[in-house]
Amino acid sequence: MSIFTRCSKCHIFNALKHNTCPKCATTDKVKAYYVSHSVAGKRTFEYAGNKLSIAKSVDADRKLEKRTGKLPQYAKLKIMNFAEFINTLFIPHFEAKNKSIQKPQYIIKFFKDFFADIDICAIKPIDIERAVLAGTGGKSSASYNYFIAIIKRMFNYAIEIDKDNRPRKAIATL
Fold first, then answer.
1. What is the pTM for the complete model shown?
2. Rounded to an integer, what distance in angstroms lies between the CA atom of residue 74 and that of residue 133?
3. 34 forms bridges with which residues in the sheet?
């Protein structure tokens, strides 16, 4: 397990010791850190935030999981309901990636309450559309688009953490 950065121009993973990308010679001011580990014999990169300290703690957690034989969080996604996904996986990811969760917090809570006990893999696009319409309640198109952006972010993250784990698509791309 190691920590890598990702070039913003050519999107290749670079070792932490490189300040510039060896492929395109780009120097990033704000770095995105990734932790590399293997899942079922396949190498994966997990986003760990924009701070090296967060990346080091994620790396330490993955090493501990590997040593103890504990099933990683993302491997449990298939047996998780939507509220558990929000509380255990999405909110920590969202807080690590963003400075503030205050603005979209009410939308996240709305979706968590709307899909509370439904298995995350059982949610269909029509269910999402109903939730967005119920959440916006006839407000402006900007509100509708904001609700769509937040739910899209949730499901894209679920797809990202689940894609190495599944033989078929369990979650539909939005």
1. 0.50
2. 29
3. 4, 47
Angle at alpha carbon of residue 15, lines to 70 and 34, rounded to 5°: 45
Cα separation, 87 vs 45, in Å, equals: 22
- Residue 166 token pair: 């599944």
What CA–CA distance (Å, rounded) separates 106 from 136?
12
Residues 6+ apart with CB under 8 A from 79: 119
Which two three-digit tokens encode residue 25? 């010679």
Distances (CA, A) of 83 to 88, 90, 136: 9, 10, 20
Task: Name the β-bridge partners of 15.
Answer: 4
Mean pLDDT of successive 10-residue stretches along the chain, which has 174 residues: 74 74 74 74 72 82 76 56 82 73 80 82 81 84 86 84 53 50
Q: 15: which residues sit within 8 A by CB, 6+ positions away?
A: 2, 4
| Residue 26, strand partner residues | none
What gap in Å lies between CA 142 and CA 1, rounded to an integer? 42
Q: Which residues contact 72 (CB under 8 A, 6 or more apart)?
A: 39, 62, 65
